[in-house]
Amino acid sequence: EAGVAQSPRYKIIEKRQSVAFWCNPISGHATLYWYQQILGQGPKLLIQFQNNGVVDDSQLPKDRFSAERLKGVDSTLKIQPAKLEDSAVYLCASSINHGTRNEQFFGPGTRLTVL
Amino acid sequence: AQTVTQSQPEMSVQEAETVTLSCTYDTSENNYYLFWYKQPPSRQMILVIRQEAYKQQNATENRFSVNFQKAAKSFSLKISDSQLGDTAMYFCAFMKPAQGGSEKLVFGKGTKLTVNP
To answer: What confidence score (pLDDT) does residue B63 get?
Structure first.
């Protein structure tokens, strides 16, 4: 079974530029998560989708971050414009459902550096 | 809001020895789940072990076991017979069950474990 795929793996941009990340979850997984992991910290949830609907985006900086999950499969996370403090690893995860044994499977992440 | 605290930023252990990583959490919930995730250098995060709060028996997975103390809100991870491949960041995480797919993981800051040959 293929795992969670993310691209690109690395991205370097100048501040105020835009960037987009892509995630393809494990086939059949209804729930998709985007996390931000700043160096030296644990992942922080940015947004959670159930199929193509947003379940939780309370920690998403909506003035600059946006995310979508069209057709309930792939997802993109965009930052526009980027700030220095957005430098982090962006992790995508998916889970099969929201049952009591909700294991999240993580992708390799996209390491973003904002100069 | 729930919080997870890992008080050991870094630890090291000799190969084949045993090491224990600490985790405490704060919640007013009675039913929840606790996890330990492993994140090797430049590799993706994987689940090591899971504990349901309603179960009194501590979870075990091969060389990995937990000491779950619900009253003390403590959830430590013991790694026995440490191997070089255990070198990684280890994250403790909390999840509160919810309706409608709204469960989310709250992570601690992590403990960097180095296994020395």
So the answer is: 97
